[in-house]
Amino acid sequence: MYYTFDSRIRYSEIDHHGTVTLPGIINYFQDCSTFQSEDLGIGTTVLKEEKRAWLLSYWQVILNRKPELGEKITIGTFATEFKGLFGNRNFYMKDADGKYLACANSVWAFIDTETGRPTRPQPKDVQLYGVEEPLDIPYEGRKIRLPEETDDLEAFPVRKYHIDTNEHVNNCQYIRMAADHLPEDFKVGQLRAEYKRQALEFLPDDLQIAQLRVEYKKAAVLGDMIYPKLSKEADRIVVELCDEQAKPYAVLEFKEEI
Questions:
Q1: If you write DSSP's letter for every residue of 61-100 in order, what string do you get?
Q2: Per-residue pLDDT tens digits for 121-143
Q3: Which residues are bridge partners to 63 per DSSP?
C-alpha cells in the first residue's frame, strides 16, 4: 500500500544555502512511515502497549536534488517485503512536477522491547501495509565496509533531545551526530562543519552528497558516551559512532558519487 503526504519546505528545515538539510529529508521519511502506521491503527502507542517496536537497521538514501525554502513536496513510502524478523521499506520525495528529489531503501527489525531482541511479527503487524514493487534504484548491501585506518574524535554524551519514544537515540540523531563531529578544516571534496552549537546538518560549499548509507548496530540510550571515529577515503567518508569499547552504535558512509 502506497502512502503519501504533501508538505512545504520550512525555514526551520533549511541550511545556509536555503535548501533542506539532509536530516530534514530523513525526518520527512521517518514521519511518513510513522503517519502511515498511525493511520492504519498500528502506530507507536499500540506497539508500546504490546511491548513491540519497529527499529531501523539500515538506510540507503540517494539524493538527486535538495528542495529549496518554500518548495512544495510530496513524500511517499511503501513496504517492499516482509521476511522473517525484518521488513523492507522504500521512501521517496518528489517536487511539484513529480520528479524525484530523493529516494531511499530501509530495513527494519521487529523488536520485543522487553528483551531487546528481534521477534517475528504476527500477521496483524504486517498485513495492513501490503507489499509493493521496490523502486528502480541502485541498491547496495546492508553491510558498510569499515575502514582500516580512522581518526579518533572527541567523545560526547547522549543528551535528552537525542531520545525518541522508544527511549533510544533517534535514527536521525546519529546522522546529526556524525555531521557535527566532522573536522572543520575539510576542503574540496570533503564535509565542512558549520553551526556546530546548534547541532544542525553540516554541509560544504563544494560538496553535493549523492548517497548516505547508515548501518545501525545497537541502540544508544540516555547517558551513554559516544566515541566518534572518522575516515576519509578516495570515494567516501565514513563515520563510526562507537561505545567505550570501540563497538559501533552506528556506521555512516557519505558518498559524492554512486
A1: EEES-PPBTT-EEEEEEEEEEEETTEEEEEEEEE-TTS-E
A2: 999 999 999 999 999 999 998 99
A3: 102
- What's the pLDDT score for residue 178? 85
Q: Which helix (H) or strand (E) holds 110?
A: strand 100-112
User: Which among 166, 186, 198 has a CA at the least distance from the CA of 239?
Assistant: 186
Q: Which three cell numbers stand for residue 27?
A: 525526518
CA angle 242, 205, 74 (to 5 degrees): 80
Alpha helix (H) residue ranges in 148-252:
171-180
- What digits encode the pLDDT tens for the residues 151-164? 898 899 999 989 88
* C-alpha pair distances (Å), 197 with each of 170, 176, 202, 207: 19, 12, 11, 21
pLDDT score of 258: 66
| pTM score | 0.84
Give the model's pLDDT for residue 213: 94
pLDDT(185) > 60:
no
Report pLDDT digits (tens) over 19-44. 998 889 999 999 999 999 999 999 99
Q: How many CB atoms sit inside 10 A of residue 123's CB?
A: 8
Cα torsion 161, 166, 167, 173 to 10°: value is -40
CB of 237 closer than 8 Å to CB of 192: no
Reading phi first (left if > 0) and then psi (alpha if -120 to 50, else beta), residue 199 is in left
Contact indicator for 89, 76 with CB cutoff of 8 Å: no
